[in-house]
Each structure stands twice: as C-alpha cells, then as structure tokens.
Amino acid sequence: MTDLFSSFMQWLHEVFVAQWDGWVILGFVAQACFTMRFVVQWLASERAKRSVMPVAFWFFSLIGGALLFIYAIQRKDPVFIAGQGLGLLVYIRNLVLIANERKAQAAGK
User: Fold this and answer.
1) Going along the chain, which residue ranges are E strands?
2) Do the beta carbons of residue 69 and residue 81 sit within 8 Å?
3) CB of 74 closer than 8 Å to CB of 100
4) What is the pTM of this model?
5) How far is 49 from 5, CA to CA, in rounded Å?
C-alpha cells in the first residue's frame, strides 16, 4: 500500500509540478475561460427561467477555444488541435450571425 501511495505521489509531482511552465499556465487560463461560458449560460438561463445562450457564451468560447488551440499546437496534440480548431469556426460563425441580426434590427428601427 505504501508503494502505491508513493507511486501516486510521484505521478502527481510529475504531472502537476515537474512540467509546470508558462504553457501549463496558459492551458489553465484557457480552460478557465472555456469553463466560464457554461457558467454564463447557466446564470442567464436561471435568470430567464428558460434556456438562453447569451453573447458572452460565444465570446468566452472564442477566447477559451483560441487559447486552448494555441496550447494544443504547442503540445502537438492532433486530437485537441482538430477539436478546438473546428470549434473556433462555430464560435466565429455564431458571433457573425449575432452581429448581422443586430445590424438588421438596428436598420429596421
């Protein structure tokens, strides 16, 4: 049991301490931004008492996704690169649709 605990502690050190650098910090900042989109969406839905998707959701998605994309490129992770890269297209497209809708509403008033 002591060997198992020792191995686990060594693994924790290797994962969370030994490889700690600026890229890991960027990865955690990116993940925090990406997570905030869910918090924003949840709070907006709770206030409205229905499911809503606020614009901030898409901005947090874009910022977090872009930072995670950069992080994935640096880590050379093809799965993560593909996933975040394609997600960025969706976030940008949604922001363009929102901007176009607002322009049309402003022109119609």
Assistant:
1) none
2) yes
3) no
4) 0.78
5) 47
Specify the DSSP element, H or E, that contains 44.
helix 22-48
CB 88 within 8 A of CB 66: yes
Give the Å distances, CA to CA, from 85 to 11, 37, 46.
30, 17, 30
The amino acid at residue 45 is: S
Taking each helix axis from N to C terminus, what angle separates 78-108 and 55-75, rounded to the nearest 10 degrees?
160
pLDDT by residue (tens digit) across 37-57?
889 998 999 999 988 899 999
pLDDT digits (tens, 9 = 90+) for 65-100: 999 999 999 999 888 899 899 999 999 999 999 999
Q: Which of 93, 91, 75 is nearest to 33 (CA)?
A: 91
- Tokens 């992080």 map to which residue? 71
Residues sharing a CB contact under 8 Å with residue 23, sequence separation 6 or more, in sequence order: 71, 74, 75
Q: How far is CA 70 from the centre of its chain?
A: 12
15-18 long-range contacts (CB < 8 A, ≥24 apart) are none
